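Why should sequence recovery work at all? Because a backbone constrains its sequence more than one might expect. Tight turns favour small or flexible residues, buried strands favour hydrophobic ones, and helices have their own preferences. The token representation captures these environments compactly. In the example below, the structure is given first.
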């Protein structure tokens, strides 16, 4: 360490001394960082192994005799090559073994689903898998180096002929650098390699052993900045129970259950209890209290627990002793090209060995067939023996592919007399012919190297691909708004006169249930509005007239308001939505004049427009002191609009006369089959325009029919076969197989009960639904089975409307036929004029105008608006 003091202590008394650290400290940290990056944390691109993994595989090969070895023994053997102790080797080996690709394991190797750790190394055993033996090792083309103590040789890189790094994945944290490469599907990697060799484009996505669901929209080939979202597979077991059968990558059942319990403790979700029945397969049962929506709870589990996690990949590898950041597609290309090069090297070595075998087999035949061995009988020196054989061979070696060397002659002298005496010329020639065939085949492979590599990958897929199909389902996720799915875990109160809202004001007026992440919208009698976060106690402003949970981007909640514009000013009416705001900012809806006052206010969740009666004060010669005002005549504008004039005279009071209906159009709803969700954004198939009382009809392959409210949070089962707007008068027609009677039946029925699941086929293990139709006049075609010795019965078309009348949903129906049926299919329905549904007219657009005494009541309307009246 060097010490350099630049400050003079006499001139700078009281100041600190600056000490610069140099010498070996300058290099130590960089050396350490480089060592951790290259030798411990980041895998090499050539074979996909970190050093400890490579040394484990090399040790397994050295110990390989076909039988299992104790892991403790393998760890001890690996310590000859790896200088970091048995714990790091044992942990790395367990990680490789749990991936079930390179190591054939025996004993308790832990469970990636539950997070249980493996047994101690002395209790578990391992050996190389057949796949590992085939694709990892090839000593003749392996480059070697001395081990850390110079006593042994170890491979610099193993000649891996497969995209192993992408199949297994890799994670590592070094000094100032990390890597996170996702595991990919075995079969898909092989298919992608074949596509690359054929010059075709390919795309690969992660596949996890824990299965689950994955959104790879932003995967970005695994590069820095990419992201994937993974979810547990959650389904509804019954009306009060959810079941989790697959979990996200990076979690286990223990951590998943802990996250659910924590969310329940914080009040974000509400559950009764959890059962973990996981064994070979994941099964977590989540029991819900009565009255809790399963669909909403599923979304809440994704929003607030580890049932959904986000993974940020970072594809970093080592190439030429330097970190390299490349995407997974480029990794696969390089791996595939490297495999082709390794196969070429193996073929070249094989060709060289075959040609050497052919060369010596030819020499041996010449040597024995022409009795050249007799030429050495008179020779007394070794040099004479060599010379005599060389001279004897020359007339017969013109067809050989290389010159005869002294080593060849020495090898001929080592042939035993017994072999010479039993030499068979025909067998010798057959051996030479076979070698020539093998040589030609290897040369053909070298000339058609790409085709050979494709055949090699196809062989790997055929031999080892069974049972390695994709586990993780790829799907586009819908974004879940936490505020829409969180359980309302607290209560909101208001002190209207003093102007406070909060969850701690329990002695004041109760408003509603809310959650701790909700925003609250508040209006005051002076025309002020504010949106603020839920808190224990917040001051808004005196004389609060309306408090509610605020919904962002809500275009259906409409506020109806009549206010006086300042002291002595005119009275205005306005209708507006509040879709976006700045939190904790005070908005003035009455233009900010002193003395402004709200006479009437209502919040209408579905755009309802009521009728109110306006009363004026008796001042001067006013002729009309009372008239009705219909909010349906007022155009919905922005919250900053001034509104329409009600009267220039003083208003005494305003009273609600009649509630009204919605002035908004019925809401159009679509079904997006990709994410299996409803939406109002125009994605997927249009189901129709829905009013408040409309329902969806859902029919599943199991023969269950139900009607549901079209909520955007609804989850749909994979066996759903009918999803459409429900018409009460429209019958459902079906043909089903009755397992008990072993016959086909036809039935037609109406769905009469809302929001209730009903099965319309008998509860028998052999009963099954054949076809179902919601057309008014469906037609089915019956194809009969040909019976032995008889002609096939011609196909039969059936008009189901004529075949059977509409009956109850529980009726057995009419027997279709006694003949054996091969197939039943639906044909185009018969024409039918469907009765039109009367839709409410769209709201009429009214320009800003005077809506005072001249306006008269046009109609009486009904709604659920909750008006607030002020004298």
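From this structural description, the recovered sequence reads:
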């Amino acid at each position: 360490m060097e010490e350099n003091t630049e400050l003079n202590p006499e001139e700078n008394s009281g100041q600190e001394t600056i000490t610069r650290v140099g010498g070996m400290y300058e290099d130590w940290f960089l050396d350490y960082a480089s060592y951790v990056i290259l030798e411990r944390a980041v895998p090499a691109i050539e074979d996909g192994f970190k050093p400890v993994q490579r040394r484990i595989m090399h040790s397994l090969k050295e110990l390989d005799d076909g039988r299992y070895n104790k892991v403790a023994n393998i760890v001890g053997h690996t310590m000859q090559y790896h200088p970091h102790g048995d714990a790091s080797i044992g942990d790395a080996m367990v990680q490789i073994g749990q991936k079930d690709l390179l190591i054939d394991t025996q004993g308790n190797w832990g469970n990636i689903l539950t997070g249980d750790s493996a047994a101690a190394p002395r209790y578990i055993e391992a050996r190389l898998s057949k796949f590992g033996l085939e694709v990892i090792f090839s000593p003749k083309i392996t480059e070697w180096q001395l081990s850390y103590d110079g006593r042994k040789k170890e491979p610099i890189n193993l000649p891996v002929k497969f995209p192993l790094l992408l199949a297994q994945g890799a994670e590592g944290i070094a000094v100032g650098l990390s890597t996170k490469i996702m595991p990919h599907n075995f079969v898909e990697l092989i298919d992608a390699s074949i596509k690359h060799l054929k010059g075709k484009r390919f795309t690969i996505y992660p596949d996890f052993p824990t299965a689950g669901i994955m959104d790879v929209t932003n995967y970005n080939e695994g590069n820095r900045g990419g992201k994937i979202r993974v979810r547990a597979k959650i389904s509804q077991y019954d009306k009060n129970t959810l079941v989790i059968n697959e979990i996200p990558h990076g979690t286990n059942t223990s951590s998943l259950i802990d996250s659910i319990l924590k969310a329940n403790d914080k009040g974000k979700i509400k559950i009764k209890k959890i059962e973990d029945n996981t064994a070979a397969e994941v099964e977590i049962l989540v029991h819900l209290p009565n009255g809790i929506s399963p669909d909403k709870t599923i979304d809440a589990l994704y929003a607030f627990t580890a049932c959904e996690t986000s993974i940020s990949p970072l594809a970093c590898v080592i190439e030429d002793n330097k970190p390299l950041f490349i995407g997974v597609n480029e990794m696969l290309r390089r791996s595939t090209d490297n495999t082709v090069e390794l196969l070429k090297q193996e073929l070249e070595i094989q060709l060289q060995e075959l040609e050497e075998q052919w060369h010596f087999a030819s020499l041996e035949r010449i040597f024995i067939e022409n009795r050249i061995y007799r030429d050495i009988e008179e020779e007394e020196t070794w040099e004479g023996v060599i010379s005599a054989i060389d001279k004897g061979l020359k007339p017969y070696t013109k067809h050989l592919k290389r010159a005869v060397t002294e080593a060849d002659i020495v090898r001929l002298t080592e042939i035993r007399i017994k072999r010479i005496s039993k030499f068979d010329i025909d067998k010798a020639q057959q051996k030479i012919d076979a070698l020539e065939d093998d040589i030609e085949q290897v040369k053909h492979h070298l000339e058609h190297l790409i085709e050979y590599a494709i055949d090699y990958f196809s062989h790997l897929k055929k031999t080892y691909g069974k049972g390695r199909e994709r586990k993780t389902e790829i799907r586009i996720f819908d974004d879940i708004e936490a505020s829409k799915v969180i359980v309302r875990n607290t209560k909101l109160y208001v002190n209207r006169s003093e102007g406070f809202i909060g969850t701690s004001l329990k002695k004041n007026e109760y408003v509603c249930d809310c959650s701790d992440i909700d925003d609250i919208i508040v209006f005051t009698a002076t025309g002020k509005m504010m949106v603020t976060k839920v808190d224990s106690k917040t001051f808004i402003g005196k004389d609060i007239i309306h408090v509610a949970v605020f919904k962002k981007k809500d275009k259906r909640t409409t506020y109806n308001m009549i206010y006086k514009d300042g002291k002595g000013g005119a009275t205005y009416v306005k209708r507006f939505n509040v879709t976006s705001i700045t939190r904790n900012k005070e908005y003035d809806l009455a233009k900010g004049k002193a003395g402004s006052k709200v006479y009437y206010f209502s919040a209408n969740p579905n755009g309802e427009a009521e009728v109110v009666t306006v009363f004026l004060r008796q001042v001067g010669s006013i002729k009309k002191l009372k008239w009705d005002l219909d909010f349906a005549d007022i155009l919905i504008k922005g919250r900053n609009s001034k509104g329409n004039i009600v009267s220039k005279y003083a208003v005494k009071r305003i009273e609600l006369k009649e509630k009204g209906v919605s002035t908004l159009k019925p809401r159009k709803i679509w079904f997006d089959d990709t994410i299996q969700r409803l939406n109002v954004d125009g994605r997927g198939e249009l189901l129709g325009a829905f009013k408040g009382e409309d329902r969806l009809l859902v029919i599943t392959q199991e023969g269950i029919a139900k009607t549901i409210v079209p909520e955007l949070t609804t989850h749909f089962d994979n066996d759903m076969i009918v999803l459409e707007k429900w018409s009460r008068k429209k019958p459902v027609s079906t043909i089903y197989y009755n397992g008990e009677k072993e016959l086909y039946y036809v039935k037609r029925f109406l769905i009469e009960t809302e929001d209730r699941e009903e099965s319309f086929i008998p509860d028998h293990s052999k009963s099954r639904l054949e076809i179902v139709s919601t057309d008014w006049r469906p037609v089915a075609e019956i194809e009969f089975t040909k019976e032995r010795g008889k002609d096939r019965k011609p196909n039969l078309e059936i008009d189901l409307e004529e075949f059977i009348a509409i009956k109850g949903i529980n009726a057995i129906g009419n027997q279709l036929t006694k003949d054996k049926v091969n197939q039943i299919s639906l044909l185009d329905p018969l024409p039918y004029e469907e009765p039109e549904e009367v839709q409410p007219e769209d709201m009429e657009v009214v320009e800003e105008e005077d809506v005072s005494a001249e306006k008269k009541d046009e109609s009486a309307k009904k709604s659920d608006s909750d008006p607030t009246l002020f004298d």
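A few observations help interpret the result. Residues 328-369 form the longest helix (42 residues).
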